[in-house]
Amino acid sequence: MTIQTNYILISSMDVAPEYEALFNEIYDTEHTPSLLTVPGVRSIQRFKGEPFSMAIGSGVMDKEAPAPVYTAIYEIDDPSVLTSPEWARAVEEGRWAAQVRPHTRNRHHAVYASVAKKN
């Protein structure tokens, strides 16, 4: 994934296990397509954390899957995208707000700016 914008939004959360299949289905088929219609949202890529091992210093460190376990990276033109009327509409569309959001927890959102600004 080569990031083409100067800003990214990181959205991370956990979902109740009994709603995980619905969460993934709605995120992929409704929520992501809706958010991609928002002017200034360039791409969305979703990830699920996994346990891993990593060599560091003189040893190997074993790490558990992160919490929250699900993360989406949104390439955005500017943080103002997130307060636009189009964003406000898109985050409430479809089944996400009523059928998925109530079953998520440990939600984290952060915006990062590139330290090497692109034109």
Automatic annotation (TrEMBL):
InterPro entries: Dimeric_a/b-barrel. It comes from the Bacteria. This is YCII-related domain-containing protein.
